[in-house]
Amino acid sequence: MNTNLKISNVTKIYPGCVANDNISLEFISGKIYALLGENGAGKSTLVKILSGVIIPDEGKIYLNENNLKLNSPLDAKKNDIGMVFQHFNLFETLSVFENLIIDSDEQRESVREKIDAIMKKYNFSIDLDIPVLNLSAGQKQKVEIIRCLIRSPKVLIMDEPTSVLTEQETSELFLSLKKFSDEGILIIYITHKLKEVMQLCDEVAVMRRGKLVSVSEIKNENIESLANKMVGQNLKTIKKKKAKTSSDQLIKITNLNFTSEDPFETNLMDINFSVNRGECLGIAGISGNGQSELFQVLSGEIISEKNSIEFNNNYIGDLSPQERREYLMAFSPEDRLEQAAIPQMKIFENVALNNFKSSNFFNNGLINENKIKEHSKKIISDFNVNTDNVELKSQFLSGGNLQKLIIGRELITSPDLLICFNPTWGLDVGAINYIHETLIKINEQNKSIILISTDTDELLKLSDKISVIHKGKLSKIMNSEEVTSEKLGILMGGAN
Amino acid sequence: MIIDINFIGLIIASIMASAVPLILASCGELITERSGVLNLGVEGMMIIGAISGFALMTVTGSLIIAIFGAMLAGVLISTIFAFLTQTLITNHVATGLALTIFGIGISAMIGKNFVGIPGKEFPVLFEGLKDTIPLLGPILFGHSIVFYFAFALPFITSYFLKKTKIGLIVRAVGDSPESASNQGINVRLVRYACILYGGAMSGLAGAYLSMIYTPQWIENMTGGRGWIALALVVFSTWNPIKILIGAMIFGGLTIIQFHMQAIGVRIPVQFLTALPYIVTIIVLVVISRDSRKIRLSTPSSLGKSFHKDN
Question: Structural domain of residue A270, as residue ranges?
Answer without folding.
Answer: 249-492
